[in-house]
Amino acid sequence: MATVQIRGSKESFSGNEEVAAYLGQQEILFESWGVDRLNGHLRESYALSPEEKQQILDLYDVEITDLKSRQGYLTQDVIVVSEATPNLDAILEKFKKEHHHTDDEVRFVVDGSGVFTIRKGNLILDVIVKAGDLLMVPAYTRHWFDLTEERKIKCIRIFKDPAGWVAVYDEPAALATK
Ligand SMILES: [Fe+2]
Fold first, then answer.
1. Separation of 92 CA from ligand 1 center, angstroms?
2. CATH architecture classification, 3-175
């Protein structure tokens, strides 16, 4: 279950419906797909085989197919980030720098947790996502990401073109006022 904290404000939102409604006002898609359908191994293992990753994707086929048809996404995969990830700290340093992508960044959290910080002009939102949460950061929206204290996250990524989510660190002048 996600939480949204507004920086510089005491205002925060928690609970799937409240978070979805608030983020929806910001044109950020949030859905709760849940993880009840996953067995313990598929949910907890961070050393999944390609076949096991495919099993996870198959279990969410209905939701993924629906989202792809609504948003025009074409493909999906499973990504795992944990202490076992080579060069974890160097990877996190990149994630933690403000950037945007030319494609939407879509993540469904299978296990673990993370914080997507999303900046829209002066509004800065910390969106803490946990297992069962789907978050879509729209293309060209400035954001950054960090793990939480548990330092692990396993996600389904859904995208149009892998080239589309290469991080763009420089902020184009046209975006500075968005
Ligand atoms: Fe990103």
1. 11
2. Sandwich (2.60)
